[in-house]
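Thread: "does anyone have the structure for this chain?"

Original post by V.I.:
We have the sequence but no experimental structure in hand. Need at least a predicted one for the grant figures.
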Amino acid sequence: MFERRDLSDRLEDVRDEHAPDALVFDCERDFETLQPALAEDLGVVVDTLEPVSYPSEWLPADAPTLLQRYAGSEFTIGMPGDGSIAWTEQTDPAVVLVKPRVEGSPEPFLEFLLAEAFVELGLGVPEHFLGFFEEGYREFDRAVSLGPNDTYQVATALYDGWVGLQTREVFADWRDDHPDLAAAWQDAGNRLEGRVSDLPRATARGEIEFADATELACAAIKHAIELPTPFAALETDAYRDHGPGYAVTWAEKTFDALAE
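Reply from O.Q.:
Generated one for you, tokens below.
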């Protein structure tokens, strides 16, 4: 299931700076959440396994089944919304997993995704939004007048945006030390810019659901793209500094406005 991946010199440099002990593996097949038995196979290649769990009281009664399993005692790696690269610190050392879905992606973009994983590991942030919201996720759920799956998607997006506020400072500094990675970061942002600027019109025309719009807008944060209302309020130092509390307040105000 797991095969050690060779890294280019520039990726080795980024890993050495941000997550020097992390191991990188190509995965045999795609996944959103690894089955516990497969996740435990990592025990062969790491020193220890340290599964995390969270209090059930943090979850609303209608939380998606996968989120309930993640919060519980099962050894869970990977969740919906992780994308093509997943990382975990439930192993020692930490592990970065490359999914087969990246096959065919331009090499510079794939290297950026791997470098991004190293940077995120170096920040010491939770690997999932539940570790970000903690007991505040129930309050967030009450503020978001969507179904449980869409609420999950919005929460994932807001957490990614909060992380992106921190990583983009590192990415911008790569222009001098890692120009190829900086160029890939810039190129990915350029590809998003038009879609993000059209979000208000696309939403008004019913061409995109709110959860999808939030995901797109928050993905743009790490690329330092200017966001339209109501997402512009997330691209702020206040969000970076106050995190989950700010996200809950943003959700309350945003969905109150949508209901008017």
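V.I.: this helps a lot. The two ends are 51 Å apart (CA to CA).
O.Q.: and The beta strands are 2-4, 23-27, 48-49, 85-88, 91-92, 95-98.
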